[in-house]
């Protein structure tokens, strides 16, 4: 099952569906126990619990209640707990009584020396940036912050990070991930999901992400009866004589991502073959031979020749991925793809997205990518640190790259080659996009090792990443029987 991310409304609905567990406070007690467990784990790992100091920043709602009950547990374990109440008149009364009863102190500001701070200003009921009084409490905090449910000041549904917001080392959430845990993952730190006994239900505005095990299981591998043609031949249309780089990167990525065969069309055919002799490369589309999917666009130019190629390819009934220059051509004439019935995947970065949709992506990235996919009737993959892939029906898969080393010239050409070859192998566009984004991100991480990379290094890491994923998740690599 893909990992599911819910909107705040869907979380509330799932909480209400538990009935008594919500009403009698069981859910909150379980949530608090989870927060306390994580904090105790952190303290234990950094020298022990007894006598350590924890500061709590408590807002007006139930998020503060979670933290106060957690503080009570911590205080009973010998942790010195001090809570700053941002809204003393509306502080969760049961939580406050428990906290005080266990020996927790109420203070006007965080003590000068604390080992850890708990952010319980707001959870899913929060709106907008941290209010100034809350922001002032966090100013100057240098110790790790454990966020209850979410780092306050980040929008639960859109992941918008307001300028006054918390950056957490750990985020402890309950029952199900919320959208922001994917969309603002870099601000959440390590995310711990605590089981509180509520069952999440599907939600039209929620998100999904594939697990590594799912990516590994879906990755195409040749079977005993396969030959170079049966696995899906991908045709790459990219680059030019003047700009052969995109052609080489996209073709190399296609060669690396799946077995079988890669064809190439374009004036950089010679350069491509000099790097990848296994590619069957021609100058003209008419000479290309049979493919099972096309990946068209990087560095191909935006003139009449590009338009002709796109017209021809998109008029056919094969799966097609369009990227980069190809998207600029489509932005001028969206009817080239609108309502196309064969699998179609557009892979814009934010600038290309704005060209296609007529407006900047804006704050609500999932809504924007959903709207463009619905408008054009094709699958859209919006690139970035958090890649989002939306189907025309509105299902959105996301991938946090885990680092930003892929933000380098030519990295998108590599993604085109990977995703194109997965389309050729028969994967649905959204699954091809999501699997490609995952492997692309892992390849950037592996290639980087903490240092800057170029797209060639990322490309070189694609094969080992696929191998590691498959090995880690049970992919058999075959054996030879000897006598
Ligand atoms: N229900 C349950 O049993 C369970 C609930 N759970 C927990 O409850 C959380 C949801 O609780 P919630 O609905 O009470 O909202 P919550 O996020 O605490 O606070 C909202 C209040 O904060 C204020 N405020 C708003 N924006 C602000 C800002 N920018 N900066 C500062 N303050 C701001 C505003 O109040 P105002 O000041 O406007 O009166 C608003 O009313 C959820 O995330 C989870 O942690 C779990 O324990 C599981 C069981
Ligand atoms: N900040 C970032 N963190 C992680 N990955 C990123 C980031 N920015 C871009 N990427 C990824 O790097 C690739 C860049 O693609 P693109 O912008 O088309 O570059 P180019 O056109 O130079 O090939 C995409 O796969 C994108 O998702
Ligand atoms: K919080």
UniProtKB/TrEMBL annotation:
Residues 11-204 form the YjeF N-terminal domain. It catalyses: (6S)-NADPHX + ADP = AMP + phosphate + NADPH + H(+); (6R)-NADPHX = (6S)-NADPHX; (6S)-NADHX + ADP = AMP + phosphate + NADH + H(+); (6R)-NADHX = (6S)-NADHX. Gene3D superfamilies: 3.40.1190.20, YjeF N-terminal domain. Residues 211-469 form the YjeF C-terminal domain. AMP binds at residues 383-387, 412. Belongs to the NnrD/CARKD family. In the N-terminal section; belongs to the NnrE/AIBP family. This is ADP-dependent (S)-NAD(P)H-hydrate dehydratase. The lineage of its organism: Bacteria, Bacillati, Actinomycetota, Actinomycetes, Mycobacteriales. The gene is nnrD.
